[in-house]
Amino acid sequence: MRPGAIETLGALLDVLCPMHLIVDAMGRITHAGPTATKVLDTKALTGRDFFDLFEVRRPRLDPGVPGLRAAAGRRLHFVLRGPADTELKGVAVPFPEDRALGPPGGVIVDLSFGIGVIEAVGRHDLRSADFAVTDLAVEMLYLAEAKSVVTDAWQKLNQRLQGAKAVAEQEAYTDTLTGLLNRRALEPMMRRLIASGQEFALMHLDLDYFKSVNDTLGHAAGDHVLRHVAQILRQEIRDGDTVIRVGGDEFVLMIAERTSDAELSRLGGRLIRRLEAPVAFNGEVARISGSIGTTRSSTYAKPRLAVMMDDADLALYAAKQAGRGCHVAFRPGLRNAVEMRSVGAVPPV
Amino acid sequence: MHGLINRAIELFLRDTYGQEAWDEIARRADLAPPEFEAMLDYPDALTVDVLAQAAQLLDKPEAEILEDIGTYLVSHPTAEALRRLLRFSGADFTDFLHSLDDLPARARLAVPQLKLPPVALTDHGQQMFSVTVGRREAAGFAFGHVLLGLLRAMADDYGALVLLEHKGCRDGVETIDVQLLEAAFATGRSFVLGAAG
């Protein structure tokens, strides 16, 4: 061996692969590249046993330096023993037997953080200068950071769009005059109730004499009355109930509890009494009433919106026929009764 | 034009001249609502209009505004993420200059839709360089002025002392002369590789 050959080799390797170690036949570290020295952060690194510091995790090798030599050129997975259990990738190349470069039986091990470089950079305070000039680690760090910046921007955009969507949906389902839900909300609300499996009642309310308020006192008075009605309905329902303005002077109430006939009848009666109270508007007095048809989900084996709306309508029709200002609960026999009486009956107002 | 560029213009104008000035510029440029989304694309003409309206309202040459945008992108706290990304390009200012050719590719690597005009550095020796900026098709504004402001701020960031001069535009190519007086003139701002993680 030429004197100084190993030092020259070490100096070259320090630049080409700064995270390398030169290990002699006994497994002792005889030289460490600058980054390896920084990462290992061990006093008196030279002379330390390589296998005290590292465990070869994969592939399975024969113990000691001969094992490393036999695995020449293969991808090796090491674990740096210590609290962090840092995983490292590496490759080993044996010294040639002819002593040209160094003592025979030794090995050069070059290490890399692989994908773990992002955490390692913070843990070991690594700088660009700690990586070989040709190493793409810094580019990878750039990319990781760029990715998080861009992902962040996307996420913010998504949040804003989500917020805008929620507002748009809210607006799409809201009746601007009364602030109640509008007809579009009927199906989704009903679907939600049916899916929840709880019993509920559907009340179809149609205002009586509302048209004459519009005709005699004007549309401003009509709007005022509608807002007043909305307020009454809101006051009479409880949490979990729903009020929807389904048409000009038509409302649907979904009542989630209080679904016995007696309770519904009491609620219907109270609503009608409150609707019949005179409403003052610009020195005039508007008087209306309301007819209500009700049906209960427990009447059906499988409640469906179309059927329940139809039956509530029928009950409402019956209430109109019965002289308006009253509440009728749907029952299966009602259809025949209504149809028999419908000849010459008073059409609903 | 990519929203990131438009958003940078907007943030610069708002942070520097106030919300009212920005609102007025946005109104004159018919930008409603008066803000850009960083991740959406906008017609190039809109960017051109915003810059023209800003120049008119602020009574400043457009080149000056563009240069200030470049400086803002590196030095303002709002743009800290971008400063960090730029610092990945080189360990010192000389390194950074030599990596300028990669700038459009780096930008594309981060955001594939973000297209910057080609940038090329020529080393004249004795710390004299020139940077050419090719005008992107129909980009409508002189990116070289933005790059000049950005280079000035990056020199500060690295602690280097430089003289920079925009030499104008010929055949659609802008040229910036760079004279590096002292690479380590002052202590630059710190940059740690893993700080943002």
TrEMBL record, chain A:
Gene3D superfamilies hit by this protein: 3.30.70.270, Haem NO binding associated domain
Transmembrane segments: none
SMART domains per record: GGDEF
PROSITE patterns (UniProt xref): GGDEF (PS50887)
InterPro entries: DGC-Regulatory_Protein, GGDEF_dom, HNOB_dom_associated_sf, Nucleotide_cyclase, Rev_trsase/Diguanyl_cyclase
Domain GGDEF: from-to ranges: 198-332
Name of a matching Pfam family: GGDEF
Taxonomy, superkingdom: Bacteria
Protein name: GGDEF domain-containing protein
Organism this protein belongs to: Roseovarius atlanticus
From TrEMBL, chain B:
Residue ranges annotated for the Heme NO-binding domain, each copy included: 2-132
Gene Ontology terms: cellular component: guanylate cyclase complex, soluble
Gene Ontology terms describing biological process: cGMP-mediated signaling; response to oxygen levels
Alphabetical list of Gene3D superfamilies matching this protein: H-NOX domain
PANTHER family according to UniProt: GUANYLATE CYCLASE SOLUBLE SUBUNIT BETA-2, SOLUBLE GUANYLATE CYCLASE GCY-32-RELATED
Top-rank lineage group of the source organism: Bacteria
Organism: Roseovarius atlanticus
Protein name in UniProt: Heme NO-binding protein
GO molecular function: guanylate cyclase activity; heme binding
